[in-house]
Amino acid sequence: MKAYIYQNTGPAADVLTLREMVMPAPGAGEVRVRLKWSGVNPSDVKTRSGHIPSTIPFPRIPHSDGAGLVDMIGDGVDDFQPGDAVWVWNAAWNRSNGTAAEFVVLPSEQVEHMPDGLALENGACLGIPAMTACHAVATDGGVRGQIVLVAGGAGAVGHYAIQAAKFCGARIVIATVSSEEKAALARRAGADFVFNYKTDTLVEEINKVTDHRGVDRIIEVDLAANIQIDVAVMKEGGLAVIYGSSQKEIALPFSPSIGRNICYRFFIVYKLSRPDRQRALLVLQDMLKDKNVLHNIAKKVSFANLVEAHELVESGALPGNVVLRIE
Predict the structure, then answer these.
(1) What is the pTM of this model?
(2) What is the pLDDT of residues 85-131, one digit of tens each?
(3) Can you give the C-alpha Rg of the chain in angstroms?
(4) What are the residue ranges spanned by the domains of the chain?
(5) Are 49 and 65 in contact (CB under 8 A)?
(6) Which of 34, 52, 217, 232 is the Cys-Cys partner for 71 at CB 3.0 to 4.6 Å?
(7) Cα dihedral value 142, 147, 153, 159, nearest 10
(8) Which residues neighbour 254 within 8 Å (Cβ) at sequence distance 6 or greater?
(9) b/e map of 232-265 (b: 16 or more CB within 10 Å)?
(10) By CB neighbour count within 10 A (0-12 exposed, 13-18 middle, 19+ buried), where does 21 fall?
(11) pLDDT tens-digit readout, 32-59
(12) 29, 107 in Cβ contact below 8 A?
């Protein structure tokens, strides 16, 4: 099979190479998927660049998310048959063989059936972006009746988070963005209020929406950039659910945080516990059954142009998901 590998970390153009690899065979309890699409996520490019340290042996095939058709099943697999349309998750987590390849073999519990009518390319966006959003919404009792602030509401996770919050009963969803183009995406996803985070009046605008009572929950993409804003708009006893930061070290404003009983919930979607993952998956499955979920694919890139896909994600220039078409 053809697959992209890297044998050391570094710039995409320097380290990613297309190789002919041995076709993997599924063992007991495993499924082989003929991949049609591979999701390219920020964590994929950060791992390839070395920004996220990893002890996984080289060579590595990048990418954790993908979608395609079941090609072969191992002994003991009863939930799948060849030809089933599926999406996969955590393919490159603690493994060397991700989804930037024609085939991938995974334990059957890391393979999910595609909902009827959902395009395969959208399935490549579910493992990290959609599951991150659904966990951020569902954890700690959920959001029913709450005012929720989604930072980066036009991003791959934020776009799903707005929809998940509305689906799960949030009373008001506020989103922050950096441009009018991104504001339109956030409104289309269902945000009730959308504000540009580059303005000096952001805190005032959010506090007006909450009548100065504060937001119940913040779904945070960049804690380093937004921590002061988060503290300024959070209600007493509020919750910040954090899945990202542009800096590794952050000065936490201790006094206002403890004085108002603010809770900070950090998580990485790769390491969700089985109960947490199952809860998030149920939310996602219910949303997809409703058939009203909007998927925000910003760019579809051909298999020959993986380097371009990585560079696009690294640039941060595109709102939404980048997916790789595997011909």
Answers:
(1) 0.96
(2) 999 999 999 999 999 999 999 999 999 999 999 999 999 999 999 99
(3) 20
(4) 2-125+295-325, 129-270
(5) no
(6) 34
(7) 40
(8) none
(9) bbbbeebbbbbbbbeeeeeeeeeeebeeeebeeb
(10) middle
(11) 999 999 999 999 999 999 999 899 999 9
(12) yes
Cα distances from 20 to residues 3, 23, 144, in angstroms, run: 6, 9, 50
* Residue found by looking up tokens 């298999």 in the block: 303
Question: Alpha helices of 234-294 — where are they, by DSSP H?
Answer: 254-259, 274-289
3-class SS at 33? strand
Q: Are 172 and 147 in contact (CB under 8 A)?
A: yes
CATH topology of domain 129-270: Rossmann fold (3.40.50)
* 2-125+295-325 and 129-270 share one fold: no
Q: What's the maximum distance between 2 C-alpha atoms anywhere in the chain?
A: 61
Residues 214 and 237: their CA atoms lie apart, in Å, by 10
Tell me the three state secondary structure of residue 318.
coil
Neighbours of 141 (CB within 10 A): 9
Looking at the chain, how many residues does it have? Answer: 327
In this structure, what token pair is assigned to residue 168? 């799960």
What's the 3-state SS for 214-258? CEEEEEECCHHHHHHHHHHHEEEEEEEEECCCCCCCCCCCHHHHH
**CA gap 219, 228 in Å, rounded:** 14
Rounded distance, CA 225 to CA 98, Å?
31
- pLDDT tens digits, one per residue of 176-210: 999 999 999 999 999 999 999 999 999 999 999 99
Backbone angles phi, psi at 193, to 5 degrees: -135, 140
Which residue bears the tokens 């063989």? Answer: 97
- Measured at the CA of 79, the angle between CA 76 and CA 80, to 5 degrees, comes to 95
Hey, what amino acid is at 271?
A: K
Q: Which architecture, in CATH terms, is 2-125+295-325?
A: Alpha-Beta Complex (3.90)
